Amino acid sequence: MKTLKNHLGLITSLVIVILIAIAPIVSGNAASREVVFTILRAIVLASSLNILLGYTGYVSFGHIVFFGFGGYVGFYLITAQGQSLWVAMLAGGVVSGLLAYLLGKAILRLRGAYFALATIGVNEAVRAFINNFEPFGGPTGMTMNFSVYQEYGGAMKALEMSFYIMLVLALLVVVLSYVVRTSKFGLGLLAIREDEDAAEVMGVVAPDAKTWAFVLSAIFPGMVGALFFFKNGSVEPLDAFPLHTSIEMIVMVMLGGQGTVLGPILGAAGYQRMRGLLVTSPIFKNIQLAVSGGLLLLIVLFVPAGVIGWARQRWPKLRRVLQ
Amino acid sequence: MDFILASLADGLLLGFIYGIAAMGLTLIWGVMNVINLAHGPIIALGMFTVYLLFTFLGIPPYLGVLLAAVFGLLLGIVIYVIAVQRVIDAPHLSSLLATFSVNMIIIGIGTAIFSTSPRNIDLQLWSISLGPVTLQGTRVVASFIAVLVTAGLYYFLYRTRQGKYIRAVANNRAAAELVGIPSNRVLALSFGIGAMLATIAGALIATFLPFNILAGGTYELKSFVIGVLGGLGNPVGALVGGLILGLLEGIVPTFTQTTWVPVIEFVLFVIILLVRPNGLFGAKQ
């Protein structure tokens, strides 16, 4: 019982993810399953980014590069090499982690705005490279033969399966996010966020810690990329590396509360719901981007800690539950 | 060889305009350590100012450039007061996100009004032929204006009181306040000038290239590359960086496909950030 109580924050977060996903599981409604699929994808991406952005305090404006790169590698393995989805997802995660490791060794030396600029540069460079890289189909990308889905019991079954895999990934990310936050390693990251020089003086090996935080934040986006483009059936550079999705990930993390486990989950769910409403509403359909921008501005100016951060400040007793 | 010369000349002329776009970005960075992620949409608004004035009111494009400049100055000050002022001393994330939200607002409203279909201003001027090289009048005039603007900026920063205020605040804001410089007003003015340079660059580009509301994004990314190339916070470096980028865009297509240009640009960008974050001409850290 005691251990359960100690991990109340984790349990709350997991329960909320399951609650978000429960409706389509119960009803079996394909349309609502698709909606929840995008929400779960957003949760994985936002929670992963949070490890770098929220815990370590480094702003990555090009985090989508790991999603796109993992997606491309996974897609290539499935279509050109005839590998299974499992291998593709594993490979997507591994290559993204590897890319993050190499990039981290190089660009994590930069601090603050310089790092943010470098991440934009990396995203654009990778996208421009893939655009020219013929094995990956160049600017037109690649498409998947429909027969690939036969192995998984047809396209319908494959879609349904993708949803459950995404749910598992989302739950795993939440566990990872929680474990990192409560570990000694995570404490080191938080120290780096507050004051990197002071953290180093206190014995945190900042370059290593930052690199591993970067790697951890890249693995799941790579796996999700492989899964997403498997389900999508085609991949092209513009879909795989949209700079604005990187920013949307940041908005989700900020909205929910950076540096918390639950924050990115609520932020992702809330943002996707709002976006869905705006896109379908006749008044806001055309200016949904402007509305999201206005919302982001209000958060940045007035509630920089996000919903969860604000609640934690307001009601200190809730801190145990709202990690 | 002839092709290379022609391509170089075009690249060089374009480089001057890239230069002033980057100067706007780098001025704001130098004065207040804010990276203005709304730079691209502001450039696009400069394009549309000239376009709308020309197509609906028949105002000649070069007069339109002047009006675009005034519009940019005012817009910049408004953006500063609404979005930047409150986060200027906050961590970088806040100012990056605040300016990015301005970006989303402008692009969102702009797309709703103008859609993303391409526009162009039909402006024909003379052209000069020097051997194999043909220089289009519109490009020559545009780069000439860009040089004038640079000179004007220099005169302003070094010879006028307001300009000296800006440099003082950039140098040390607390000390500037101690000697009675109204720093908040100076910061607002600097942001205005930064936005003004962006709208001028956009307005000039609109006189010879087609564009749409999203077109500013490309030039914003180029401005980042140039700003880093020349050293963030260094206006002369920005102009030189612009010329280097223009030349690069002129040279690269002569030996490989044009689509490789962005790969080379961004790889260069990341490498310079890593090796010399203060730019090619900045002091080494």
Give a description of the structure.
The complex is a heterodimer of chains A (323) and B (285). Chain A has 323 residues and is an all-alpha fold. Chain A has one domain: ABC transporter involved in vitamin B12 uptake, BtuC (Orthogonal Bundle), CATH 1.10.3470. Chain A has a two-stranded antiparallel ribbon with strand order 1-2. In chain A, helix 3 crosses helix 13. The longest helix of chain A has 29 residues. The mean pLDDT of chain B is 85. Chain B has 11 helices and 2 strands. A two-stranded antiparallel ribbon of chain B has the order 1-2. The longest helix of chain B is centred in the N-terminal third of the chain and has 31 residues. Chain B has one domain. Chain B is mainly alpha-helical and 285 residues long. Chain B is globular and about 60 Å long.
Summarize the structure.
The complex is a heterodimer of chains A (323) and B (285). By secondary structure, chain A is mainly alpha-helical.
Query: What class do helices, strands and sheet pairing of chain B give?
Result: mainly alpha
CATH architecture of chain A: Orthogonal Bundle
Strand order of the biggest β-sheet of chain B: 1-2
Biggest β-sheet description of chain B: 2 strands, antiparallel
List the helices and strands and how they pair.
The complex is a heterodimer of chains A (323) and B (285).
Chain A: H1 2-6, H2 8-27, H3 30-56, H4 64-81, H5 85-107, H6 112-132, E1 142-143, H7 154-182, H8 184-194, H9 196-201, H10 206-232, E2 234-235, H11 237-240, H12 243-256, H13 262-280, H14 288-302, H15 306-314
Helix pairs in contact in A: 2-3, 2-7, 2-13, 3-7, 3-10, 3-12, 3-13, 4-5, 4-10, 5-10, 7-8, 7-10, 8-10, 12-13, 12-15
Chain B: H1 2-32, H2 39-57, H3 61-84, H4 92-114, E1 127-130, E2 133-136, H5 137-159, H6 161-171, H7 173-178, H8 183-206, H9 216-230, H10 235-255, H11 261-275
Antiparallel strand pairs in B: 1-2
Helix pairs in contact in B: 1-5, 1-8, 1-9, 1-10, 2-3, 2-8, 2-9, 3-8, 5-6, 5-8, 6-8, 9-10, 9-11
